[in-house]
Structure formats: C-alpha cells, structure tokens
Amino acid sequence: MQRYTYLKLALKENGFTLQQAADRIGVTKGYLSQLINNKIKEPSAQKLQALHEVLHLEYPPREKNIGVVFGKFYPLHTGHIYLIQRAASQVDELHVILCHDAVRDFELFQKSSMTKQPTVEDRWRWLLQTFKYQDNIKIHDLSEDGIPPYPDGWDEWAIRAKKLLADNHIQANAIYSSEPKDAIRYQELLGVNTVVIDAERSFMNISATQIRQEPFRYWDYIPTEVKPFFVRKVAILGGESSGKSTLVNKLANTFNTTSAWEYGRDYVFSHLGGNEKALQFSDYDKISLGHAQYIDFAVKYANKVAFIDTDYVTTQAFCMTYEGREHPFVQAMIETQRFDLVILLENNTPWVNDGLRHLGSKAKRKEFQDLLEKLLTENGIPYVAITSGNYEERYLESIQLVEQLLNDKKENSDEISRDENRSE
Known about the structure:
434 Repressor (Amino-terminal Domain); DNA binding; Cyt_trans-like; Rossmann fold; Lambda_DNA-bd_dom_sf; five-stranded parallel β-sheet
C-alpha cells in the first residue's frame, strides 16, 4: 500500500466525496485528489492533521499491525476459532481468508459423513456470524480452483494469495497458522513473518476431517453457528389421529432435543377462529411457510437431531383431499425442503375426535394413507413405514431408526493427511 492510500479508503468508509472533504479542511478538490493518490511529496502537516480529524483517524498515523489467517473452514470448528481469536488479540486488524476449490471440496464431501455439501456461502455465513461483533476481523475469500492439490501447487497458490492481499490493500505483518510446515511456506513465498499457534492442538484437539467423518462424536467442537448445518431432521408422518404428535414429543424428550409442532393446527386457531371450515386453497402456502419457520427454530436449537411433526407432503395431501387439487407452492416446498429420515406411521391406532379431525372412517383413513404413500413415492422421498399399532413398539422402533441415523458414518480415508494443510 502506498503512503496515503489509506486516506482514500477512509473517505469511502465515512461517505465523503472529495469535494465535501476538501471543503471541510479548506483545500481544493484537486489538491486533495493529488494528496490521496500520493502525488504530493511533502504535504502540509496542518492539512494532513485536519483531514485525519475529519475522517476520525489518529494523527500522526500509527502503523497498524495487520494479521492474516488462511483456512478452508470446511467446516469452521472451535480450533479455527481459537486460532483466529489468538491472532486477533495480537493485531489491530485481522484478515481471515476463506480458501475454496470446487473439485477438492466436493471430493472432501464425498469422503465425509455429511448429508449435504457446505457451499462457499455457508462458510462465509459461519465466519460472518461468529465474528460479527469483532470489527477488527475482516473476511475475504480466495479461489484455489485449478491449483494442484496439496502438497503441490504452492507457487500458483502464492501468486493468487499475493494478488488478493494487494487488491484488498492488506500489508500483513504476520500470518497465523497452526501448521508449522505451512508456516514455513507462507514465510518463504509471501515474505511475511509467520506465527504458529497451538501446533500440538493441546488446547483444541480437533480437525475438520474428524468433524466431517463423525460430527456427533465431536459435537462440542462445532460452533453454535455451524451446528444447525449438521442437525438431522426426522419427520413423523401419518393421517389424523395416527399418534404423530405424541411420538414426536416422546422422541424429543428421549433425545433431549427440540421438535417442531404441526403448524397447520396452530394456524387454524390463530387465523381461522379454531374451525377448519374456514380453510381455503390460499391458506396452504401460508401453512407451509409457517411450518418452515417452526422447523428452522427447532433446528437452530437442536441437540444433534430435531423431530418434525408432519411434513409438506402431508400438507399437500390435505390440500388435495379438501380442495381437490395440488398446491404449486406446497409442491415447491416438497421439492426443496427435504428431511434426513421420514417415518410413516400406519393409520391403525384408535381414532380420537379432537374437533379438528374429519377423516375418521376406516375408508377415509385408508384413502388418506394411500395418498401419503403415493405422494412420497412420486416425489422420490425414501421413507420407513412403521406398521405396528402398538404405541410402545412404534416408540422403540423409532428410537432404533434415529440411533442408526446418528451413528451413520463413512470410513476415514487417506485425505486426512492432505486436508489439514496449507489452508487448514
């Protein structure tokens, strides 16, 4: 960064035009333009001081101590956070650089136990949310697409890293890392002093590989903002009076976690005066949106798994039953909002009329059950049918299914050795 380039950045951050700033310090616009573009060799100290005061900058300017941390954050974990917080406490400004490579990241996902692949935007969000109250931490991203995988490709990587630092006017005093081997290469190729923090993982003995392979085993190392990504969603489906709500409550209590109740019932009371006769076609999109909000809340605060009472297929089945047609918005929710486990309860328990149920005859119950199965199949949604009418057997079978879901993991591979280096 050239001598007065920081003034140009400060003008932008304070929302001043050149003319506005020039008027405040009593110089011409042309003079100020030459000053911030480093065209004036010996500017007036008085004018410089006035400009710094207008821009709320210290004068004479103190050289900032700038730090950098590189990482994949795939996913972000508490070891990363410890490194970043240690680094942030040693500098005036810390630049955290999220490194991503589409091919490599997809390969890591394929070898993981994650049910979905984190996007670059997911990783941005985790970093931004985690450090949103620390103004001295800035987030950037660096594409590593096309660079040979670690341990090769260092020269190409360094060229891109230098360009990113230059483009963002980052004059680093130190690069912080937990990898001694990488620290050596950073210093050699970027010409910046490197600081190694907790190389032995004595404080945070965790790696992204371990979390990708067994997220629930290492649950305590997953940050609050990242946990919802790993939460497994279990939907319990069935017709009226099939025991869905009771089973959801039992499972949530058993696994010490959250649940999302069926929003449609709440909607009837909050919007329709407690009577389903007022329900019409235009209500089903609102019910789906409300249910999505219930699910989001349950997932945000869940302990590894969240139990969902009813899904969008069920909402669509009710719409088709009562309105005689499919709702396009509900169908869109079916296609985009999927669950990790869908349990379909056979509609063979005693029917209880609670005032909001109208499908109590044996024929209607079977017709609705058949429709649920048909819609699940047509939408390519795998499900497990529990056919027992015994409540305890249903409960125990559900527990077994959930335990299988939480214990599902892939075998570790040799990618561990190459994963935790160059960009942790």
